[in-house]
Amino acid sequence: MAKGFLLVLSGPSGSGKGTISKALLDKRDDIVYSVSATTRKPRDGEINGENYFFMSEDEFRIMADEGGFLEHAFVHSNYYGTPKDFVFKQIEKGEIVFLEIDVQGALQIKKNYKEAVFIFLLPPTMDELRSRIIKRGTETDEDIKRRFSNAFKELDFVGEYDFFVVNDKVENAVADIEAIIHSEKLRVKRHNDIKKLVTMQGGTVNVK
Ligand code: 5GP
Known about the structure:
It is a single chain. By secondary structure, the chain is α/β, with parallel strands linked by helices. It has a domain at about 5-35 and about 95-200: Rossmann fold (3-Layer(aba) Sandwich). Helices cover about 40% and strands about 20% of the residues. It has helices at about 15-25, 55-65, 85-90, 105-110, 125-135, 140-155, 170-185, 195-200; strands at about 5-10, 30-35, 35-40, 50-55, 70-75, 80-85, 95-100, 115-120, 165. A five-stranded parallel sheet has the order 2-7-1-8-9, with helices on both faces. Strands 4-3-6-5 form a four-stranded mixed sheet. Helix 1 (about 15-25) packs across helix 7. The structure holds guanosine-5'-monophosphate (5GP).
């Protein structure tokens, strides 16, 4: 069986990470979404355990102290973290585990878990990015300014990632990510049993 792997998607606020993630997950059944924990207040329509595990700062701190996070970071004045157990259990089962996290978190994972695949999502232009943040209408003026200025800082880190995808159209961006997944699934190092597969007389090499 092929090993599962971690797929990390980052990109500035307004790059469309949420939309792309949803479209990708709706389309594929070989990808599981890692639900993050956060101290941010839920937005209208957000569901605990589905969009995030919403928690208090105390609860978050205890979980961090107990080593419960694969990574965690302070982003736009709130804490966010990836629960560790879920990720490793799913990878063990051969799943592709999808994380939608900020640059600081991605860099922590890169240090400790080199086999992950890192994708940076870019907006088509910075003007488009600003109007997407404003259009969303869920943030205060101060929040919008903070997210926009953080976006510039985050863009500097694109060089740390393996791939970039431009979100000009959702279908195109999803197709690009699927192409990356397709190649990653064919990496020899993700197949412990590749020798057995290719030397099997008359056997079928079936890489799922
Ligand atoms: P939002 O508040 O808009 O849902 O997310 C704000 C930022 O936090 C986004 O850049 C998002 O990718 C990031 N984020 C969400 N979950 C995590 C996480 O578990 N860890 C880290 N480091 N960032 C996260």
